[in-house]
Amino acid sequence: MLPEHWESVKKIYELGIATGLATFETKATDWEIWNNKHIPFGRLVCIIDERVAGWVAISSVSNRSVYNGVAEISIYLHPSFKGLGIGFVLLNNLISESEENGIWTLQAGIFKENKPSIRLHKKAGFRLVGYREKLGQSNNQWHNIALFERRSKIVGI
């Protein structure tokens, strides 16, 4: 992902926000804020016919050094490209790149109602580790969050 992809990445994120099932955020930030919030590696886009079809990025879960190998993922697909396996390709490439950079655990918090995202994460080797009940509201509706993680088999063993 390069800065010139930002407008497309932001638009896809805004489409995810609009579903009410992808994030508790209510609006996308600007590039500077987003850039500072995410780890410099593990930012990937899938380009099809010169369009950003989807993206994935990771952020730190803590600034404590003991958690340097743990990151939280965000993955979003443009609705026009769902069901084509792009999410799986993005996630697998992210896994490889994160392991090359010392990440031993990837985690994801997914709205319990977001069945496609849950299926994608399971397919990519994530396992359900728990739930957080009524963690937050989106569109005045409480949502439970399914917590998933993927432990590396080559880093941090």
Q: Tags for this entry?
A:
157 residues; alpha+beta; Aminopeptidase; six-stranded mixed sheet; 6 strands; globular
Short description:
The protein is α+β, with helices and mostly antiparallel strands and 157 residues long. Helices cover 29% and strands 34% of the residues. The protein has a domain at 3-108: Gcn5-related N-acetyltransferase (GNAT) (Aminopeptidase), CATH 3.40.630.30.
Descriptive notes:
By secondary structure, the chain is α+β, with helices and mostly antiparallel strands. The chain has a domain at about 5-110: Gcn5-related N-acetyltransferase (GNAT) (Aminopeptidase), CATH 3.40.630. It has helices at about 5-20, 30-35, 85-100, 115-125, and strands spanning about 45-50, 50-60, 70-75, 105-110, 125-140, 140-150. It has a 6-stranded mixed beta sheet with strand order 1-2-3-4-6-5. The mean pLDDT is about 90.
How would you summarize the topology of this molecule?
Blueprint: H1 6-19, H2 31-37, E1 44-48, E2 51-60, E3 70-77, H3 86-100, E4 105-111, H4 115-123, E5 127-138, E6 141-151
CATH class of one domain: Alpha Beta
Query: What is the radius of gyration?
Result: 15 Å
pLDDT average, as an integer? Answer: 92
Which fold name fills CATH's third level, the topology of one domain? Aminopeptidase
What is the annotated CATH architecture of one domain? Answer: 3-Layer(aba) Sandwich
Uncertain spans: none
Strand order of the largest sheet: 1-2-3-4-6-5
| Helical content band | 25-40%
Total DSSP helices:
4
Shape: globular
Number of strands: 6
Give the topology string: H per helix, E per strand.
Answer: HHEEEHEHEE
Structural class: alpha+beta
Look at the structure and name the CATH superfamily of one domain. Answer: Gcn5-related N-acetyltransferase (GNAT)
Let me know the largest β-sheet: 6 strands, mixed
The N- and C-terminal alpha carbons lie at a distance of: 29 Å
Q: Proportion of β residues?
A: 25-35%
